[in-house]
């Protein structure tokens, strides 16, 4: 099959080539991939660390070619969206049925391919905050793949949403259109404290955001795009009266039961209630261009690759 392979001698460390067809385990379906979306995490960590010849890729949408041998998951011919640790950037992927959501008939494969890592993380991280109806929620890195979904889902969940972006002048209107009630340049610019934070940035931003938590509030540490350490000022973690606050870590693959969430999210995207935030879309022969834009911090939203004939 054709696939995007890790090749450190190629631009952006990727080239289109041939790879062996995947052999599904009994609990895996074989899916013919039609679209995939790129995530910051895979483009940085996976492409840099995976061996030459590996087929990376976490998110993919397509059609079930062969149902799982153990009888779990959707039947052959079902349109689906899928998550895995590797193998999405290829014509076929073998994927655990517990990581497969099904699509409504009108779904755009490219649009729903943005769901698993970005929308799945936003949804499950919001769950960690508990009830958000009527409560203030801060989303940092709000213009990114996870952040844009988090802003929309927090709004859908009834929160008062505060979006934090490095450039409110450039992105404020777009974030308000997605549902943000307020847009700030950094957490320390917040007025009232917040009940919950979804932090995609890490480093000093996480520390600042923690400092803006109300009593009983929770910060979910989803991402660390800055690569900087978190250093808390003395006393920040003390348990004095009025300081009952939590920081929790988050790892999407550890979340069980994702398949129904992917199905629900696909319905929201297909119906137009959630904007997938595609800021770049092209054929997979242009993957190197998309990767360069993502790494250069010039993409604010999702990059989608449509798989099509290239040879
Ligand atoms: N724990 C998990 O299971 C999990 C799951 C999904 C994602 N993640 C992590 O969550 C983070 C966000 O993922 P994503 O896919 O949303 O990434 P993304 O699309 O690249 O967005 C990241 C956003 O962070 C902001 N940012 C602030 N400082 C930055 C910097 N120094 N470099 C780049 N961006 C910076 C940018 O927004 P502004 O320019 O508007 O400030 C950017 O839009 C990543 O660290 C990713 O690995 C973790």
From TrEMBL:
Gene3D superfamilies reported for this sequence: Medium-chain alcohol dehydrogenases, catalytic domain, NAD(P)-binding Rossmann-like Domain
Leader sequence segment: none
Top-level taxon of the source organism: Bacteria
InterPro entries on file: ADH-like_C, ADH-like_N, ER, GroES-like_sf, NAD(P)-bd_dom_sf, Zn-ADH-like_protein
Residue span(s) of domain Enoyl reductase (ER): 9-305
Record's protein name: Zinc-binding dehydrogenase
Species of provenance: Microbispora maris
Lineage of source species: Bacteria, Bacillati, Actinomycetota, Actinomycetes, Streptosporangiales
